């Protein structure tokens, strides 16, 4: 088979699960959260990088849809707007039942794929969305959220974000606080995937120190190729291997192709994205790499990967480089589904051991100057 035929063959056999897509955020910002004003059955390229004709062309089989709110909503409206983002995802599934199927388990991904549906899951992008409350975290799980990114670009009262690696004066906690470690433990207990994209290197290390379940990076790339603070260093990639987790490669040109000098618009190519995939495979192993495009969360895209229609191009490029059909299947979803299963197994084991919900409250000194938390 040609590389192009190999790509299509693989994506017919197994679901392609993308770790991160911000379509819900685009609907919020461009259509005021009014799903009825959006017709995903037609070409939406004027507004978004995602629509149904293009995702069908791209052979998408599963998607973690991001529930994202900006950092300027931390301590104000983050919980409410995060809930509204989850609601947008569910309304999209309701509006297009012939295409999308809401799932909350690893097994559900395969069931949806077998019915010709795109398995649709929710990832909460940023720990500021829980307002330092374990109860709020649990309620997000109950409505179907299956991963949480511990931070976005801002520190939370319990974890440092990746910009601190660029500027040490931004450090608040030197990684995870004791309460932040409890957040990770509670996510393990519930069966929620711990997402380490966006966090500082020390936060990554602290989370890996205590995680009882495999972790994910839902949309990150390789620091050795592009020295961007959003990317993952080789020593962390080795720890992801030891943790049995996964790094899902981001398509954002700023994370893919670092330039020595600032230019107005960073560009990247499909081949450069493939270089990141290859590097992570070489360091972590082929069982620990996936795809996390960040479509509709990035202002520009790599040449050859302009939208959700273009996923097969990446698989064809890797086939040209000698990737086997079996390894391409792992990249598409085998690795992510394995991680998801293992997270569920840890959850079930804890349930059998009668491990009860954590009840810690964030110490007052971390939130004492926050006007919306006067009752601590």
Question: What report would you give on this structure?
Answer:
The protein is of the alpha/beta class and 376 residues long. The protein has a single domain (3-353), classed as Alpha-Beta Barrel (TIM Barrel). 40% of the residues lie in helices and 11% in strands. The strands form two sheets. Strands 1, 2, 3, 4, 5 and 6 form a six-stranded parallel sheet that branches. One of its GO terms (molecular function) is metal ion binding. It is found in: Membrane.
Task: Itemize the secondary structure elements and their pairings.
Layout: H1 3-13, E1 16-21, H2 23-31, H3 52-57, E2 60-68, H4 78-95, E3 100-102, H5 106-114, E4 118-125, H6 134-142, E5 145-149, H7 178-190, E6 193-195, H8 201-210, E7 216-217, H9 234-243, E8 246-249, H10 253-256, H11 270-284, E9 289-291, H12 311-320, H13 325-352
Parallel strand pairs: 1-2, 2-4, 3-4, 4-5, 5-6, 7-8, 8-9
Helix pairs in contact: 1-12, 1-13, 2-4, 6-7, 8-9, 11-12
What's a quick, concise take on this entry?
This protein has 376 residues and is an alpha/beta fold. The protein is built from 13 helices and nine strands. The strands form two sheets. Strands 1, 2, 3, 4, 5 and 6 form a six-stranded parallel beta sheet that branches.
**What is the helix tally?**
13
Order of helices and strands: HEHHEHEHEHEHEHEHEHHEHH
CATH top-level class: Alpha Beta
Overall tally of structural domains: 1
Strand residues, percent: 5-15%
Mean of pLDDT: 96
